[in-house]
Amino acid sequence: GTWKTADCKDNEGHPSCTPCKEGQEYTEEKNYLDYCRRCDFCDEEHGLEVEKNCTRTQNTKCRCKANFFCNGSSCDLCEPCITCEHGIIEKCTPTSNTKCKGKESGSNLPWLLCLLVIPIILAIIWVLILLTLKHRTQLQSYGTTQSTSTTKLTLCILFSDVDLSKYITSIAELMTLNQVKEFVRKNGMKEPKMDEIKNNHPQDTAEQKVQLLRNWYQHHGKKGAYDALIKSLPKDIAEKVQDMVQKDITSNDENADFKSENERQSMA
Protein backbone atom coordinates (compact mmCIF):
# COMPACT_ATOMS: atom_id res chain seq x y z
CA GLY A 1 0.00 0.00 0.00
CA THR A 2 3.01 2.32 -0.23
CA TRP A 3 5.64 3.50 -2.71
CA LYS A 4 9.30 4.52 -2.28
CA THR A 5 9.92 8.24 -2.03
CA ALA A 6 13.61 8.01 -1.00
CA ASP A 7 16.27 5.29 -0.73
CA CYS A 8 17.52 4.11 2.66
CA LYS A 9 20.50 6.12 3.97
CA ASP A 10 21.98 3.56 6.42
CA ASN A 11 23.08 -0.05 6.00
CA GLU A 12 20.16 -2.38 6.72
CA GLY A 13 17.94 0.68 6.97
CA HIS A 14 14.56 1.23 5.39
CA PRO A 15 13.62 3.49 2.49
CA SER A 16 11.15 6.31 2.94
CA CYS A 17 7.67 5.20 1.89
CA THR A 18 4.46 7.10 1.16
CA PRO A 19 0.95 5.57 1.22
CA CYS A 20 -0.93 5.23 -2.05
CA LYS A 21 -4.10 7.31 -2.56
CA GLU A 22 -7.04 5.35 -1.17
CA GLY A 23 -9.51 4.34 -3.87
CA GLN A 24 -7.24 5.58 -6.66
CA GLU A 25 -3.89 3.76 -6.36
CA TYR A 26 -2.50 0.54 -4.88
CA THR A 27 0.48 -1.80 -4.44
CA GLU A 28 -0.21 -5.42 -3.50
CA GLU A 29 3.29 -6.55 -2.48
CA LYS A 30 6.47 -5.23 -0.93
CA ASN A 31 8.21 -3.25 -3.64
CA TYR A 32 10.78 -0.65 -4.65
CA LEU A 33 8.48 1.14 -7.09
CA ASP A 34 8.70 4.90 -7.49
CA TYR A 35 4.95 5.08 -8.00
CA CYS A 36 1.68 3.34 -7.12
CA ARG A 37 -0.34 1.48 -9.72
CA ARG A 38 -3.65 3.04 -10.80
CA CYS A 39 -6.80 1.19 -9.77
CA ASP A 40 -8.65 -0.60 -12.58
CA PHE A 41 -11.93 0.78 -13.94
CA CYS A 42 -14.89 -1.58 -14.40
CA ASP A 43 -16.35 -0.54 -17.76
CA GLU A 44 -20.15 -0.80 -17.66
CA GLU A 45 -20.34 -0.55 -21.47
CA HIS A 46 -18.37 -3.81 -21.57
CA GLY A 47 -20.79 -5.54 -19.18
CA LEU A 48 -18.68 -5.08 -16.03
CA GLU A 49 -19.48 -3.91 -12.50
CA VAL A 50 -17.46 -3.51 -9.29
CA GLU A 51 -17.29 -6.58 -7.05
CA LYS A 52 -14.69 -5.17 -4.63
CA ASN A 53 -13.58 -1.55 -4.45
CA CYS A 54 -9.92 -0.67 -4.83
CA THR A 55 -7.90 -0.20 -1.62
CA ARG A 56 -4.30 0.80 -1.01
CA THR A 57 -3.29 -2.88 -0.95
CA GLN A 58 -5.68 -4.41 -3.51
CA ASN A 59 -6.75 -3.57 -7.05
CA THR A 60 -10.39 -3.15 -8.04
CA LYS A 61 -12.09 -6.51 -8.60
CA CYS A 62 -14.62 -6.53 -11.44
CA ARG A 63 -17.31 -9.03 -12.34
CA CYS A 64 -19.93 -9.44 -15.03
CA LYS A 65 -23.22 -7.61 -14.59
CA ALA A 66 -26.50 -9.48 -14.46
CA ASN A 67 -27.30 -11.15 -17.79
CA PHE A 68 -23.65 -10.96 -18.91
CA PHE A 69 -20.93 -13.64 -18.82
CA CYS A 70 -17.23 -14.25 -19.45
CA ASN A 71 -15.68 -17.72 -19.70
CA GLY A 72 -12.03 -16.59 -19.64
CA SER A 73 -9.61 -16.49 -16.71
CA SER A 74 -9.15 -12.71 -17.02
CA CYS A 75 -12.18 -10.76 -18.17
CA ASP A 76 -11.91 -7.23 -19.53
CA LEU A 77 -15.11 -7.73 -21.52
CA CYS A 78 -18.34 -9.58 -20.67
CA GLU A 79 -20.69 -10.81 -23.39
CA PRO A 80 -24.50 -10.52 -23.12
CA CYS A 81 -26.31 -13.78 -22.38
CA ILE A 82 -28.41 -15.14 -25.24
CA THR A 83 -32.19 -15.39 -25.02
CA CYS A 84 -33.74 -18.79 -25.76
CA GLU A 85 -36.76 -19.13 -28.07
CA HIS A 86 -37.64 -22.71 -27.24
CA GLY A 87 -36.75 -23.10 -23.54
CA ILE A 88 -33.66 -23.11 -21.33
CA ILE A 89 -31.44 -26.09 -20.48
CA GLU A 90 -29.04 -24.13 -18.23
CA LYS A 91 -29.36 -20.55 -17.08
CA CYS A 92 -26.68 -17.99 -17.81
CA THR A 93 -24.02 -17.59 -15.09
CA PRO A 94 -21.16 -15.09 -14.74
CA THR A 95 -18.83 -17.69 -16.32
CA SER A 96 -21.05 -19.44 -18.90
CA ASN A 97 -23.65 -18.52 -21.50
CA THR A 98 -27.26 -19.71 -21.53
CA LYS A 99 -27.80 -23.19 -22.96
CA CYS A 100 -30.99 -23.38 -25.01
CA LYS A 101 -33.28 -26.17 -26.11
CA GLY A 102 -33.51 -26.87 -29.82
CA LYS A 103 -36.67 -26.46 -31.81
CA GLU A 104 -38.75 -29.63 -31.70
CA SER A 105 -39.51 -31.24 -35.00
CA GLY A 106 -43.21 -31.89 -35.53
CA SER A 107 -43.97 -30.70 -39.02
CA ASN A 108 -43.25 -31.64 -42.62
CA LEU A 109 -43.05 -27.96 -43.58
CA PRO A 110 -39.21 -27.86 -43.73
CA TRP A 111 -39.19 -30.80 -46.15
CA LEU A 112 -41.81 -29.17 -48.33
CA LEU A 113 -39.82 -25.96 -48.42
CA CYS A 114 -36.70 -27.88 -49.45
CA LEU A 115 -38.59 -29.56 -52.30
CA LEU A 116 -39.68 -26.14 -53.55
CA VAL A 117 -36.38 -24.30 -53.08
CA ILE A 118 -33.95 -26.91 -54.47
CA PRO A 119 -35.35 -26.88 -58.04
CA ILE A 120 -35.22 -23.08 -58.07
CA ILE A 121 -31.58 -23.10 -56.96
CA LEU A 122 -30.69 -25.70 -59.60
CA ALA A 123 -32.40 -23.60 -62.28
CA ILE A 124 -30.45 -20.51 -61.26
CA ILE A 125 -27.17 -22.46 -61.35
CA TRP A 126 -28.00 -23.79 -64.83
CA VAL A 127 -28.72 -20.28 -66.13
CA LEU A 128 -25.43 -19.02 -64.70
CA ILE A 129 -23.55 -21.87 -66.39
CA LEU A 130 -25.15 -21.03 -69.75
CA LEU A 131 -24.29 -17.35 -69.38
CA THR A 132 -20.71 -18.23 -68.46
CA LEU A 133 -20.29 -20.45 -71.52
CA LYS A 134 -21.86 -17.84 -73.79
CA HIS A 135 -19.47 -15.09 -72.74
CA ARG A 136 -16.35 -17.21 -72.24
CA THR A 137 -14.56 -15.77 -75.27
CA GLN A 138 -15.19 -12.19 -74.17
CA LEU A 139 -14.21 -12.99 -70.59
CA GLN A 140 -10.98 -14.71 -71.65
CA SER A 141 -9.97 -11.68 -73.71
CA TYR A 142 -10.81 -9.29 -70.90
CA GLY A 143 -9.28 -11.57 -68.28
CA THR A 144 -5.86 -11.57 -69.97
CA THR A 145 -5.59 -7.82 -69.44
CA GLN A 146 -7.07 -7.89 -65.96
CA SER A 147 -4.98 -10.81 -64.69
CA THR A 148 -1.75 -8.82 -64.97
CA SER A 149 -3.17 -5.99 -62.86
CA THR A 150 -4.70 -8.42 -60.33
CA THR A 151 -1.46 -10.37 -60.02
CA LYS A 152 0.48 -7.19 -59.34
CA LEU A 153 -2.00 -6.17 -56.67
CA THR A 154 -1.94 -9.62 -55.03
CA LEU A 155 1.85 -9.69 -54.97
CA CYS A 156 1.88 -6.17 -53.57
CA ILE A 157 -0.33 -7.16 -50.65
CA LEU A 158 1.27 -10.56 -49.97
CA PHE A 159 4.95 -9.75 -50.32
CA SER A 160 5.39 -6.00 -49.84
CA ASP A 161 5.59 -4.32 -46.46
CA VAL A 162 2.37 -2.36 -46.24
CA ASP A 163 2.55 0.81 -44.14
CA LEU A 164 0.05 0.13 -41.35
CA SER A 165 0.21 3.61 -39.78
CA LYS A 166 -3.01 4.91 -41.31
CA TYR A 167 -4.88 1.66 -40.62
CA ILE A 168 -4.09 1.36 -36.85
CA THR A 169 -7.30 3.07 -35.67
CA SER A 170 -9.51 1.04 -38.03
CA ILE A 171 -7.79 -2.23 -37.04
CA ALA A 172 -8.27 -1.39 -33.34
CA GLU A 173 -12.02 -0.94 -33.93
CA LEU A 174 -12.23 -4.49 -35.33
CA MET A 175 -10.58 -6.04 -32.24
CA THR A 176 -11.59 -6.39 -28.58
CA LEU A 177 -9.25 -5.14 -25.86
CA ASN A 178 -8.43 -8.74 -24.88
CA GLN A 179 -7.49 -9.58 -28.49
CA VAL A 180 -5.21 -6.52 -28.73
CA LYS A 181 -3.52 -7.36 -25.41
CA GLU A 182 -2.98 -10.98 -26.43
CA PHE A 183 -1.53 -9.93 -29.81
CA VAL A 184 0.95 -7.33 -28.50
CA ARG A 185 1.98 -9.64 -25.64
CA LYS A 186 2.75 -12.49 -28.07
CA ASN A 187 4.69 -10.05 -30.26
CA GLY A 188 7.08 -8.85 -27.60
CA MET A 189 5.43 -6.01 -25.65
CA LYS A 190 6.34 -6.10 -21.94
CA GLU A 191 3.78 -5.88 -19.14
CA PRO A 192 5.18 -2.58 -17.69
CA LYS A 193 4.61 -0.85 -21.06
CA MET A 194 1.08 -2.30 -21.26
CA ASP A 195 0.40 -1.06 -17.70
CA GLU A 196 1.72 2.39 -18.62
CA ILE A 197 -0.65 2.67 -21.60
CA LYS A 198 -3.55 1.43 -19.48
CA ASN A 199 -2.75 3.92 -16.71
CA ASN A 200 -2.52 6.79 -19.20
CA HIS A 201 -6.04 6.04 -20.47
CA PRO A 202 -7.78 4.34 -17.49
CA GLN A 203 -11.36 4.92 -18.66
CA ASP A 204 -10.90 4.88 -22.45
CA THR A 205 -10.54 1.29 -23.70
CA ALA A 206 -10.77 2.40 -27.34
CA GLU A 207 -7.69 4.63 -26.93
CA GLN A 208 -5.91 1.84 -25.04
CA LYS A 209 -6.32 -0.44 -28.07
CA VAL A 210 -5.04 2.21 -30.49
CA GLN A 211 -1.99 3.07 -28.34
CA LEU A 212 -1.12 -0.62 -27.75
CA LEU A 213 -1.16 -1.33 -31.50
CA ARG A 214 0.65 1.91 -32.36
CA ASN A 215 3.41 1.22 -29.80
CA TRP A 216 3.83 -2.34 -31.11
CA TYR A 217 4.13 -1.07 -34.70
CA GLN A 218 6.67 1.61 -33.75
CA HIS A 219 8.90 -0.97 -32.05
CA HIS A 220 8.41 -3.70 -34.68
CA GLY A 221 8.96 -1.45 -37.67
CA LYS A 222 7.36 -1.58 -41.11
CA LYS A 223 9.25 -4.65 -42.34
CA GLY A 224 7.22 -7.81 -41.75
CA ALA A 225 4.61 -6.04 -39.57
CA TYR A 226 1.68 -6.69 -41.95
CA ASP A 227 2.52 -10.38 -42.22
CA ALA A 228 2.92 -10.73 -38.43
CA LEU A 229 -0.43 -9.01 -37.85
CA ILE A 230 -2.41 -11.10 -40.36
CA LYS A 231 -0.95 -14.42 -39.12
CA SER A 232 -1.77 -13.59 -35.48
CA LEU A 233 -5.35 -12.35 -35.90
CA PRO A 234 -8.48 -14.54 -35.82
CA LYS A 235 -9.53 -15.54 -39.35
CA ASP A 236 -12.60 -13.26 -39.54
CA ILE A 237 -10.69 -10.16 -38.37
CA ALA A 238 -7.69 -10.97 -40.59
CA GLU A 239 -9.98 -11.16 -43.63
CA LYS A 240 -11.52 -7.78 -42.79
CA VAL A 241 -8.07 -6.18 -42.43
CA GLN A 242 -6.91 -7.70 -45.75
CA ASP A 243 -10.07 -6.48 -47.48
CA MET A 244 -9.64 -2.97 -46.06
CA VAL A 245 -5.98 -2.74 -47.16
CA GLN A 246 -6.69 -4.26 -50.58
CA LYS A 247 -9.53 -1.83 -51.31
CA ASP A 248 -7.34 1.09 -50.29
CA ILE A 249 -4.44 -0.03 -52.49
CA THR A 250 -6.80 -0.74 -55.40
CA SER A 251 -8.31 2.73 -55.08
CA ASN A 252 -4.85 4.33 -55.03
CA ASP A 253 -3.78 2.32 -58.12
CA GLU A 254 -6.93 3.30 -60.03
CA ASN A 255 -6.43 6.97 -59.17
CA ALA A 256 -2.81 6.74 -60.32
CA ASP A 257 -3.84 5.08 -63.61
CA PHE A 258 -6.53 7.71 -64.20
CA LYS A 259 -4.07 10.54 -63.57
CA SER A 260 -1.51 8.95 -65.88
CA GLU A 261 -4.08 8.54 -68.67
CA ASN A 262 -5.14 12.18 -68.35
CA GLU A 263 -1.51 13.28 -68.57
CA ARG A 264 -0.96 11.20 -71.74
CA GLN A 265 -4.10 12.67 -73.34
CA SER A 266 -2.96 16.19 -72.45
CA MET A 267 0.44 15.58 -74.05
CA ALA A 268 -1.23 14.18 -77.19
Give a structural overview.
The structure is a single chain. The chain is mainly alpha-helical and 268 residues long. The protein has 3 domains: 1-101, Tumor Necrosis Factor Receptor, subunit A, domain 2 (Ribbon); 118-147; 165-254, Death Domain, Fas (Orthogonal Bundle). It contains 8 helices and 10 strands. It has helices at residues 109-134, 136-159, 168-174, 177-186, 191-200, 205-220, 225-232, 235-267, and strands spanning 2-6, 16-19, 25-26, 37-38, 48-52, 61-64, 68-69, 79-80, 88-90, 99-100. The strands form 5 sheets. The protein has a two-stranded antiparallel sheet with strand order 1-2. Strand 5 and strand 6 form a beta hairpin. Helix 5 crosses helix 6. The chain starts with a strand and ends with a helix. The chain crosses the membrane at residues 109-133. It comes from Loxodonta africana. One of its GO terms (molecular function) is calmodulin binding. It is a single-pass type I membrane protein. Residues 165-249 form the Death domain.
